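Human:
If only I could read backbone structure tokens as easily as an amino acid sequence. I am handing you a single protein, as its sequence and its fold in token form. I hope you can help me see how the letters and the tokens relate. Thank you; the sequence and its tokens follow:
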Amino acid sequence: MKLLSEFLGTAILILLGNGVGYSVSGSKMFANQPGKWVVIAFGWGFAVMFGVLVSIALGGSGHLNPAVSVYAAINSLDASLLAYIPFQILGAIFGQIVLNFINWKHIKDTDLNTVRACHCTSPAYSNFKDKALVQNLSYEFVGTLVLIGLIAVFSSSKVAESIGALSVLPVTLLVVSIGMSLGSSTGYAINPARDLGPRIVYFFTEIISMKKRKNELIGAYWSYSWVPVISPLLAGSLVGVIDHFVNL
């Protein structure tokens, strides 16, 4: 196990380390622009941290992510945890509606591609036109695999005892790291609720806000929407099976 631990630790090192190189240098990468991507990555990291803290403070589990709930359900053989999923999606919808309400003037005066990007993800290369389906699926799968795999590691008794009450901090930094290293091609949904809920809101927001500009409608990109749902769920399922039998 010690030899395997060195193998996996070094693999994560390269994946997240050299991943930054691709993110800031690769063609059409979202991070290949001055400043903005760092703000986005840290913003999402803090969003996860405070969302988890609120959930835990109210007696919840702090999943906030259907892929995490699927992982936990499989690992613990407890199907009741899947009941979290519809509420995660509804929470994402509600949060986006509030955000849109306070930004309504900005929405009406902003390019629709930018508005959609403030709701849900879309890839640098399209699934079929650019023949990037495998790449897009892989980015979301690997990103979620790293997320949930390391959450499982953080939850292990050895690590949990050493970090104690600071357990949410490593997850926060992990989300930031994934954003910087593995998020620049697909926008790193790595969470079906985070993508699907706001995408539904965008669908209606576009229609309502653009009554006088119907010729500008771009749609919610439903042809891509299944990728950030299926890939994270598959990754969560895989980690759940591994953790159940190997006990990470």
